[in-house]
User: What shape does this take?
Amino acid sequence: MNSRVLVVTSGKGGVGKTTTSANLGTALAMMDKKVVLIDTDIGLRNLDVVMGLENRIVFDIVDVVHGNCKLKQALIRDKRFENMCLLPAAQTKEKTAVTPHQMKNLTNELRGEFDFIVVDCPAGIEQGFKNAIAGADSAIVVATPEVSSVRDADRIIGLLEAAGLADSRLIINRIRPKMVKKGDMMDITDIIDILSIELLGVVPEDECIVISTNRGEPAVLGNVSRAGEAYRRIARRILGEEVPLYSLDESSNLMTRFKRMLKLAR
Amino acid sequence: MILLDFFTRLFSKEAAGSKEVARERLRLVLIHDRSVVSPELIAALKEDLIRVIQQYMDIDVESLLVNLENEDDSVALIANIPIKSLKRAVNI
Assistant: This one.
C-alpha cells in the first residue's frame, strides 16, 4: 500500500484538530497500519500531551529539519502500539523555524517508513498552516456546527484548493443530537450544503474526550466513548471501507449506551 | 428562566430554533468572504482588460477602475474605463 499524508486542519482553533489527529492516528494504528503523527504547531505543542507522550520528548521537528539529530532519534515510539510514532513540535521556537519546503522533504522521508503520516495543523492560515499542508496528499477539515467554525472552514477549503489539495473531506465534530433535534444546532445536511465538500464523518459531543485527554489516552482505546466509536468508524472509512455514519439517534438512546457498556452493541 | 424561554419560543417567530438564523447569516457572510479576491488577481485582470480593449479603443489607463462590488446577496464586477477616442481602423 502506498503511504498517505493526511493533514488535519480547520482554520479556527479549539474545534478538535489535535483530538482528531490523536484519535484517527491511534485508530489506524489499532488496525495494524504504520502511523506517524506530526505536530506542526510550533510554539504551542499539544499533540504530545493528548497522546500521553510528553515525558518522552528529547528532540523535536525543528531539531530534525535543522540537522541537530536524525529523524529516527526524534520519533517517539508509542508503547501501546509498536507501529505508531509521534514527531513532536518544538515548544520554544517560532513557526518560521520550519519552511514548507523542509516539511515536504520531511514527509517524503517518512513515506518510506509509514503507511499514514497524520499532520496536526495549527489554527490560523499563516506559516504554520502553510507548513502543515506542504507535503500533504489530502486534507481532513474539522468543523463544529457553529457559525464561526463553518465560516473558517470555508476559508480553509478555499486555501486548500488554491494549494492544489482539491479532495478535502470534512469531519463535523462535537455535534449535539438533542440541540439538532430542537432546531438549535445546524445539522449535517446544513453544513454540507453550505461548504459543498465531501463528508468523512460525524463525531458527537462527548465528555469522555475531556477524561481521555486528562489521562493522555485517546478515546478510541476504550469502548465506552461515543466519540471514540465515531473516530474508529472514520478511520475505517479512511481505509476505504463502507461504514455507515455514526448514528446520532443511537448516541442519545440509553439502552444502546447500556448495551455498548456491556459490549453487546457495535 | 426556563419558563420564560419556553414562552418566548412559543410566541416568537423563531419557534423553529436558532439554526435557521445561523444558516442564513452564514450564507450571507460567505457570499461576502468568497468574493474577496486577492489584489494580485485584480491587477492581473486589469492588465488583461487594458490589453484587449486597447485593440479597439484608446482608453485612459491611468484612471481605469476595476472592482468587485457586493450588493445584498450578489457580487458584480464593476469596471470604469474612460475612453479617450475610438480607433478608426477597427470600425468594422
User: Anything to note?
Assistant: Residues 4-261 of chain A form a domain with the Rossmann fold fold (CATH 3.40.50.300). The radius of gyration of chain A is 18 Å. Chain A touches chain B through 16 residues (CB under 8 Å).
